[in-house]
Amino acid sequence: QVQLVESGGGFVQAGGSLRLSCAASGIVFSINAMGWYRQAPGKQRELVATITKSSNTDYADSVKGRFTISRENVNTVYLQMNSLKPEDTAVYYCTCTAGALPYWGQGTQVTVSS
Question: What's the burial of 87, exposed, middle or buried (CB within 10 Å: 0-12/13-18/19+)?
Fold first, then answer.
């Protein structure tokens, strides 16, 4: 089992920045890829960014050039979000795969005002 805890969400004006953090605990040696998804009100959950164990990254087109995912050790992942837009407003969820199973955090709210 793996537990994920996110932090760093909040309220910011358009053009501002936030940094999300996610710390994993439990059987962390089994963690492979980690990433971030988001879900806005009335919309489906969507991929934001992922990072593999070898630090290969992938981003949604909507955040390329503005967001950066990084990983520290095997159990901590960050999402640096710059040039935030109102459409980035959502609950952001940390996720990982461990032993081929997906795990999710409880989410952190990001609100961007225009």
Answer: exposed
By the 8 A CB rule, do 19 and 80 touch? yes
The predicted-structure confidence for 18-64, as pLDDT tens digits, reads as follows 999 999 998 888 889 999 999 999 999 999 999 998 999 999 999 99
Which residues on neighbouring strands pair with residue 91, listed in sequence order? 39, 109
DSSP state of 33: E
Separation of alpha carbons 17 and 75, rounded Å: 23
Pairing state between β 108-113 and 10-13: parallel
Total residues belonging to the chain: 114
How far is residue 21 CA from its own chain's centroid? 8
Radius of gyration of the chain (CA): 13
DSSP 3-state of 54: coil
